[in-house]
Structures are given as structure tokens and as C-alpha cells.
Write a structure and sequence with these properties.
about 750 residues; Rossmann fold; eight-stranded mixed β-sheet; globular
Length: about 750
């Protein structure tokens, strides 16, 4: 039996009797040396073992079918508008690292755009001998009437969060070399913002600039063309114990402002504006999120906020005139107030209107607000209209085409992206305009994604399970229209439940091909090739496909901040109780059974399914656990783990460790338990969670003699586990194939 100090109870009934939380004995701590030769030898041995297990003919075919989805040239090439050009980053089979390119609106609208390639990342990687991963571009706002020309490109050498920022000229299609005065910032974590054509605002950990305990930047500096970060003037600094420093400049003509953010922890921050050479803090509680648009300052409190004897609920959206608020005025207007079923997910400004993206029981609703038309006694202090664009059980998001656009003919244009589990994504462009006391819109469908599986054969349903404390927990079920409720359907249950992130309906050709369309065979232990179709019978035995389920558990953001905070720290078990309740509901309804039910999750979702493995093994036949947190005693000491103390608690604090230990999968393993088949996967270059927690969990389980424990570690790809489509196809196919083999039986 594996015994650790964490198994031993403190001498007092309460852990505060201890001077410090105990450090559990960790026989696998040697695996924390990420790039050590001995450690990578262990990884290669594990990879070979797993690839040998999964590398059958079915897997090879599946990977190619998934890669076909990812490499499809019929996908929507999403664009971002800068000036008169529409920019896109594109990956396919011929360009695995991708092309950064642009086109005109007329060309894009035609359906067969003529692309002007600005940067071929594959060619750059070959030329420079570096496996570059493109992470985006930040343009300098040009003088009025001139085209956008200069941009800072973020390039990661391995797909991790650390980027090298290099100045690029889109007219000459070349980098502005440092020898010629170009900006070229060393690879590091941080952010960069243009102040003017010759000056950047930078928060970085490069060139020995100080780091926080979370591995992010502590300082903001002003970097002038031709100078170095090491010699740059420091404008802003935060304590080492805080999460990160950010610094940025708003270049909107007439509203130019420079901001610095002391991001204290994941949910608390202080924002300051630079006035007359000194920082002036915006006076709000640290858990009130701020955003600005021209004269408007918006507030979204994470907890209830009382101002001048009025209490505004968590998750509401409020507005004030920025200059008036900075001067001490506290006249706030309510733009949105949540109710028991409706939450605000995001918002976006066009030139004259505000778009609100809402969820009502995890289905989208979009409202358009007009600040020029104040109203009394309504749901919003500004005139509000509902955009008629949201079918039930779909995710629809609206956002401005170009929030810097000053052209009255296009400044109020917006994109609309609609998707559902069986509805390929559609891109629509609309224009907002005033129609009397309301805001109307015109729409034009620009692109629709192709269908990668027979979506007409499947049905999407929403159900509600009841958790241990009586809370109703929604979940989506995607299954064949003739689903037989006999408990024998291979079912994949997915979830996240953390950081106020919502799981909403989304089309996935990968899930369609790798799970929904796969078919069990006529006899136990065999798998069909799909030729029988949904619900076919082979030899009198029902041939069935997979069932895909997404659980909207607490800890997420589906019902706003209160839904998230209901599973914070010592309340973490509510997320796991919710997920288990969904599993039991699926079994009680006859959708599946323990032998046919698997769960999958990544990152915080990896912690979720790690707790399903260790706390609810009787509910699952298989677990796929990706880029996970698992060792909750040492997570703050690994990669960026310190930044998540606000979510999970501080394991060095005895009081916090008292509850954290109860959801630390690495410390909950026990002998004599019938654990589900387990696949743990990660990436060596993940600099956010890191690979070591996954390594140690697999090593401990194998050392305990737990059967059917498999491990795979991609050598690059960052927290996503993949930096190109081929790697992504392999990662997704391994997880899906493992679950199918475990739950539906090996192919015969």
C-alpha cells in the first residue's frame, strides 16, 4: 500500500494545531525534472507502451479521419478586420504550422477569396531552425487616413505560453530587424502594447526582469525603439505574491489612456490609469471587473457590490461615465441584472451600440443596448432589443467586426457565430441601426462550415440531474435518434467546472466521427465499421453508436459568478458531486451503465476526472485525463500553479490543506479499489500546468499494481498538447480510441 504523510491525521481535531501543512512523502518527485534524460527516458518508454496498445488499424483510420476534419479547406476562415483588410491565420495539410494572410472584403465575401500571404510559418521555421507556433498579431494604430502597416507578432518556440514578440511590416512582408531598429523581444511570458510608433509598453519576465511566484511578469516597462528591456524605464511593479502585472494603452482618438493592472489573483485585480505622470487607481473592489469604451466605464461585480446604499448583484453589468467616476461620482446605471436562469457571458462594443451575449439555461440570447436612449423602469437603463438569431440549445456569439472602425457605413457592423452539437458553425455579418426607439439589424450569411458526419441522424436533448444538495444540474446529451435505453450505449461524459468557464453547445467533426458514428458490432467484444448506420441490426443484435454528454456543473460560468463560487476552495466537492449526479442520472435513465460510461477532461477538467477516478470509481468504466492537475499538495510549486490559489486554496496553509487533500487525486489512491481503465496524457512543453503531475499519477498507479493504466506525453504543443493539426489529430484520436476500446470492446 502507498502511504503518505497526508494519510496521517493531525494530533488535534483541527489542522491549525500544525505549524505548517505536512509535505506528503512523494516517491515520484524525481519526475518533476521536466527535461532530465532519465525522466524523458521514462516518458519514451511509456509512450511506446501506449502507442503499442492503441496503434491498431482502427486507430490509424480514425486518426486520418480526424485529420481530414482538421485539415479541411472548407472550414470557415475566421477573419479579423484591421483598416480595410481582413486577416486570417490558416492551417491545413500543406501548411501544418500555418499561413498568416489577408484579403479584401469583396474577395472574402465572394466565397473564393484571393489571399495575400504575409508570413509562411512553416518556411520561417525551416529557415530559422525553430519550431515556431503563431500566437497572434497586435497592430499599431496608424495616423488617420493611413493604412495599418506595423504589427507585433507573437511566436512561441514550442507552443507554450511564453512568446517572442517581433515587429513585422505587412507592406514589405518582412520582419523589421533589430539591427535596423526593429522591436524583437526575447521569449518570455508577458504582454506587449503599442504606445506609439517608436514605443512599447511591456510586461515581461525576459532579461532578468522579476517574476511573480506564479511565473508571470511583476513589472511594466516603457521600451523605446533601439533600447533593451534590461535598460527600460520601469513604470509599474506589483508584489511577488500577486499573480501578474499587465500594462496597455488605449489609442482611441480622443480617448487615449494608459492602464496598468495589478492582477492580485485569478479573480481579484486593481486597475490604474496614468494621469499627469502618476498612477491613479480606479476605486472599485478588487473583484469588480472593469472595461472601457470611449466615455463609458463598465463594471461586472463577481460578488454583490453596494454603492451609495444600493446593492448590485454578482454577475450584473453596470455603466458610468469614466471621467465622472474617476472624479468621485458614483452614478451607476444597470445594463443587465441576472436571474436564476440567465447570466451574462461576454459583451462587445460597436461604435454606437453594446452587444450582450447571455445564456438562459445554457442556451444563447443576444441583446443590443443603445446608450443614446436611456429608459426608466425596464430591464436595462439603456434601450434594449433582443437579436432574433438564437435557436434553442445552440451557442450564438455576437461581437464587433472592428471596434476601432470610424467609418459610419461599417462602424456598427458585427459578426454572429452560431453553432450547435449537430449544427455546423455559421458566420453571419450584420449591421445595427436605430429604428425609432429600438435597434434593428440586417444580416447576411457569409460562410457555413461543412458537415463532417450525418448530423441528421442525431438528436440533442437537455436534461437536469439533481446533485447531492438538491441543486439542478443541466447537461446536454447527443445521441442517435433511435437510442435504445437499455444501459448498453458507450457514453462519453465531458466536463470542466472551474474558473467561471462555461461549456456550451458546439459542433465538433472530431466527436462526430470519432464517437457518434462509431458502431458496436453484432457480438460482444467486436466493433462494426459503421456501414450499418445509426440504429442498424446485425444478426439480430442492435448496433449502436456512441453517446456524447456535456455536463454544466458548478465551478463553471453557465449561471454566472454564483455558479462558479459555489464550488470554490472548500466547496470544491460540489463540482464533483454535480458530475457524479449526471453520471448516475444517465445510468438511471438507461442511457448507459458503469461498464459503458467513460469520462474525459483536460486541465481543470483533468482534475475533475481525476476525482471521478479516485472518489467515484464505481460509476465509470474508463477515464481519459488530459494535461491535468492531480498533485494538489505541490501544484503551487509547479509551472504556473501558484496563480490558481484563488480557485483551489493554498496547500501550504494548514487550514486550506485540510480541505484540498480531500480532492487531491494523487493522494486519494488506495489499494484494493476496482479503478476504471485510465489514460493520462500531457505535453512536455506545457508551461501552464506542466507534465509532472500527470507523470507522477501514472507512475504511482502503475507502482501500486493498478491494471490498465496508460500514459502518453507529447514532446511539444504546450497546454493544448498539440501545435499543428497532425499532432492535434493524434492527441484527440488517442483519447477517443482509448475510450472506445474500453467501453465498446476491441475491434474483432
Amino acid at each position: 500500500m502507498t502511504t503518505t504523510e497526508a494519510d496521517q491525521q493531525p494530533t488535534s481535531d483541527h489542522p491549525s494545531a500544525l505549524a505548517a501543512a505536512p509535505e506528503p512523502i512523494d516517491e515520484n518527485i524525481w519526475l518533476e525534472k521536466i527535461y532530465g534524460e532519465e525522466q524523458l527516458a521514462w516518458v519514451r518508454e511509456q509512450n511506446a507502451r501506449t502507442e503499442d496498445l492503441l496503434g491498431d488499424s482502427d486507430y490509424a483510420e480514425l486518426e486520418e479521419r480526424v485529420l481530414e476534419v482538421l485539415d479541411s479547406t472548407d472550414k470557415i476562415p475566421m477573419v479579423g478586420k484591421h483598416g480595410s483588410w481582413y486577416y486570417n491565420f490558416w492551417k491545413d495539410g500543406k501548411n501544418p504550422k500555418g499561413l498568416w494572410r489577408r484579403t479584401s472584403w469583396d474577395s472574402y465575401r465572394s466565397g473564393s477569396p484571393e489571399w495575400d500571404v504575409l508570413l509562411d510559418v512553416d518556411a520561417l521555421a525551416a529557415q530559422e531552425g525553430e519550431e515556431w507556433v503563431f500566437h497572434g498579431a497586435d497592430f499599431l494604430r496608424p495616423p488617420e487616413g493611413e493604412p495599418h502597416r506595423l504589427a507585433l507578432l507573437a511566436l512561441s518556440p514550442d507552443g507554450g505560453d511564453a512568446n517572442r514578440y517581433r515587429e513585422f511590416d505587412v507592406v514589405s512582408r518582412t520582419f523589421v530587424e533589430a539591427a535596423d531598429g526593429g522591436f524583437d523581444l526575447p521569449t518570455a511570458k508577458g504582454n506587449v502594447s503599442w504606445l506609439d510608433a517608436d514605443t512599447l509598453l511591456v510586461a515581461s519576465t525576459a532579461e532578468d526582469l522579476p517574476k511573480t511566484a506564479s511565473s508571470y511578469a511583476r513589472t511594466g516597462v516603457i521600451l523605446r525603439r533601439g533600447s533593451t528591456l534590461a535598460s527600460a524605464e520601469r513604470l509599474f511593479e506589483i508584489p511577488e505574491a500577486h499573480m501578474m502585472a499587465l500594462i496597455s494603452h488605449d489609442s482611441t482618438p480622443g480617448f487615449e489612456r494608459t492602464f496598468a493592472v495589478d492582477w492580485i489573483d485569478f479573480f481579484n485585480r486593481q486597475t490604474s490609469v496614468l494621469r499627469d505622470g502618476s498612477w491613479r487607481q480606479i476605486d472599485v473592489p478588487t473583484d469588480v471587473n472593469l472595461s472601457l469604451h470611449r466615455e463609458w466605464l463598465l463594471f461586472r461585480p463577481q460578488g454583490d457590490w453596494t454603492v451609495n446604499s444600493t446593492t448590485y448583484p454578482a454577475g450584473s453589468l453596470l455603466a458610468a461615465d469614466f471621467e465622472n467616476y474617476l472624479s468621485g461620482g458614483r452614478e451607476l446605471v444597470v445594463l443587465f441584472a441576472p436571474d436564476s436562469s440567465t447570466s451574462l457571458q461576454s459583451w462587445s462594443w460597436t461604435r454606437n451600440f453594446l452587444l450582450l451575449n447571455l445564456l438562459k439555461d445554457v442556451s444563447s440570447e443576444i441583446r443590443v443596448l443603445d446608450p443614446s436612449q436611456p429608459v426608466e423602469g425596464g430591464d436595462s437603463a439603456w434601450a434594449s432589443s433582443v437579436l432574433d438569431a438564437c435557436p434553442p440549445l445552440h451557442d450564438v456569439t455576437a461581437y464587433a467586426v472592428d471596434d476601432e472602425d470610424e467609418d459610419p457605413g461599417s462602424a456598427d457592423d458585427f459578426w454572429l457565430i452560431a453553432t450547435g452539437f449537430t449544427t455546423p458553425s455559421t458566420l453571419t455579418r450584420g449591421t445595427l441601426k436605430r429604428e425609432g426607439n429600438t435597434v434593428g439589424s440586417t444580416h447576411e450569411v457569409i460562410r457555413s462550415s461543412p458537415s463532417f458526419f450525418d448530423d441528421s441522424a442525431y438528436e440533442v436533448q437537455q436534461h437536469f440531474a439533481v446533485s447531492e444538495d438538491g441543486t439542478r444540474v443541466p447537461y446536454f446529451q447527443v445521441a442517435s435518434r433511435d437510442l435504445v435505453l437499455d444501459g448498453q450505449n458507450p457514453t462519453q461524459l465531458s466536463g470542466y467546472g472551474g474558473f467561471e468557464i462555461s461549456r456550451t453547445p458546439a459542433y465538433s467533426g472530431t466527436i462526430g466521427r470519432a464517437w457518434l458514428e462509431r458502431r458496436t458490432g453484432a457480438a460482444a467484444g467486436t466493433e462494426g465499421d459503421g456501414s450499418g448506420g445509426a440504429g442498424s441490426h446485425i444478426g439480430g443484435v442492435h448496433s449502436r453508436g456512441g453517446v456524447f454528454v456535456v455536463a454544466n456543473i458548478r465551478g463553471g460560468g453557465e449561471y454566472g459568478p454564483s455558479w462558479h463560487r459555489a464550488a470554490l476552495k472548500e466547496k470544491r466537492h460540489r463540482a464533483y458531486e454535480d458530475f457524479a449526479a449526471v453520471a448516475r442520472h444517465l445510468i438511471s435513465r438507461g442511457v448507459t451503465s458503469r461498464e459503458r460510461l467513460g469520462c474525459v477532461g483536460g486541465s481543470n477538467g483533468g482534475l475533475l476526472v481525476g476525482n471521478m477516478l479516485t472518489q467515484y470509481p464505481e460509476l465509470f468504466g474508463a477515464v481519459s485525463c488530459g494535461v491535468p492537475l492531480l498533485d494538489m499538495r505541490r501544484y503551487t510549486k509547479l509551472s504556473a500553479g501558484h496563480s490558481w490559489i484563488a480557485e483551489y486554496g493554498d496547500p501550504d496553509d494548514p487550514d486550506d490543506w485540510h480541505f484540498i487533500r480531500t480532492f487531491s487525486p494523487y493522494h486519494l489512491l488506495r489499494d484494493g479499489v476496482d479503478y476504471p481503465e485510465t489514460f493520462i496524457w500531457t505535453a512536455t512543453s506545457d508551461d501552464r500546468v506542466g507534465p509532472v503531475q500527470a507523470r507522477k499519477m501514472a507512475a504511482r498507479m502503475q507502482a501500486m499494481g493498478i491494471p490498465n493504466v496508460w500514459y502518453h506525453e507529447a514532446l511539444e504543443g504546450g497546454h493544448a498538447g498539440a501545435s499543428d493539426n497532425r499532432q492535434a489529430a493524434a492527441l484527440q484520436s488517442r483519447s477517443q480510441h482509448f475510450l472506445w476500446r474500453a467501453l465498446a470492446g476491441r475491434a474483432g
